[in-house]
Amino acid sequence: MIETRCAVVANPTKLDERGAELVRQRLAEAGYAEPLWLETSADDPGRAMTKEAVEAGVDLVIAAGGDGTIRVVAAGLAGTDVAMAIIPAGTGNLLARNLGLPLDVAGALDVALGSDERRIDTVVLTVDGGEPDRFAVMAGTGIDAMIMDNVDDRLKKFIGPGAYFIAAGKALGRLPVPVRVTIDGHTHKRKAIITLIGNCGELTGNLKLIPGAQPDDGLLYLYVAFPSRPSHWFKALLRLVTRRPRKDDHVRVWSGRHVEIHLQEKDAYELDGDVEGEGRVLVADVDPGSLRIRASAAHRAVEAGANNS
Ligand SMILES: Nc1ncnc2c1ncn2[C@@H]1O[C@H](COP(=O)(O)OP(=O)(O)OP(=O)(O)O)[C@@H](O)[C@H]1O
């Protein structure tokens, strides 16, 4: 089936004019009508724009931007029958990496305008009983959120993922905090420096934090790092940054469908790589297969190969 109605939700600070021109040109060549072109703003990373696209009745929304833009568009399309395509234009590009999508505009457009797609899970998250939000990759508190918060935007532009390593160094002084986590009714208590919920396993730098986690397996993964000695901390931090878990790490990973994180005090949390705010109780439920996403079989094969390595 060839879609003819398409919207582009683009962050103009991430997708430059050349990129935008290429998108328009490739859409025209592929026989699409003039797209509904919606730019994000400093105040709205794409919520109202995605809603407008859905209400306009488009069949496909191409999201072009960094992780924040991609997350908000994915959240807005989850549960609808509108397909999403990704043009990764940030530093982390976490969802694109996890789906094995091309990270350049031309390659991403090949997939966006192809007919191959898959359904992936999204995660409904409620923080302190507020309005539910969604993420597609991960939600985290502790050092993880601190790293995301400390990453300097200018530095990110300049040295890319290396900026996360520098931010991780800054976060080293953090103390573990008592946390109670529940996964499908089973409760565990730890003094943790990182507590995160993953829908996908791969974070930045092409390394896997939660090996085996797949965005379409209908499961969430709860990752808790609870080092008790400085040497453990250092290892846990190193693993967080290098994303290479080992047996002797003070790390546990549980999987399930419903996850609760109860902190003693409010702490910053991040969603798909962007710090969203502070919260004490995070409740997450997986919504299996809730998002239609353009991804080619070839890229899936590459992804599967990478997972086996
Ligand atoms: N039109 C705009 N003008 C200025 N700032 C904008 C505009 N649209 C979005 N932004 C800002 O861009 C940021 C979101 O960027 P986006 O999520 O696309 O990339 P990112 O999260 O920085 O990506 P990454 O972390 O992968 O580098 C938000 O801070 C938002 O306020």
Automatic annotation (TrEMBL):
<dbReference type="Pfam" id="PF00781">
    <property type="entry name" value="DAGK_cat"/>
</dbReference>
<feature type="domain" description="DAGKc">
    <location>
        <begin position="1"/>
        <end position="129"/>
    </location>
</feature>
<protein>
    <submittedName>
        <fullName>Diacylglycerol kinase family protein</fullName>
    </submittedName>
</protein>
<dbReference type="Pfam" id="PF19279">
    <property type="entry name" value="YegS_C"/>
</dbReference>
<keyword id="KW-0444">Lipid biosynthesis</keyword>
<comment type="similarity">
    <text>Belongs to the diacylglycerol/lipid kinase family.</text>
</comment>
<dbReference type="InterPro" id="IPR001206">
    <property type="entry name" value="Diacylglycerol_kinase_cat_dom"/>
</dbReference>
<keyword id="KW-0443">Lipid metabolism</keyword>
<keyword id="KW-0418">Kinase</keyword>
<dbReference type="InterPro" id="IPR016064">
    <property type="entry name" value="NAD/diacylglycerol_kinase_sf"/>
</dbReference>
<keyword id="KW-0808">Transferase</keyword>
<dbReference type="InterPro" id="IPR050187">
    <property type="entry name" value="Lipid_Phosphate_FormReg"/>
</dbReference>
<keyword id="KW-0547">Nucleotide-binding</keyword>
<dbReference type="GO" id="GO:0016301">
    <property type="term" value="F:kinase activity"/>
</dbReference>
<keyword id="KW-0067">ATP-binding</keyword>
<dbReference type="InterPro" id="IPR017438">
    <property type="entry name" value="ATP-NAD_kinase_N"/>
</dbReference>
<keyword id="KW-0594">Phospholipid biosynthesis</keyword>
<dbReference type="InterPro" id="IPR045540">
    <property type="entry name" value="YegS/DAGK_C"/>
</dbReference>
<keyword id="KW-1208">Phospholipid metabolism</keyword>
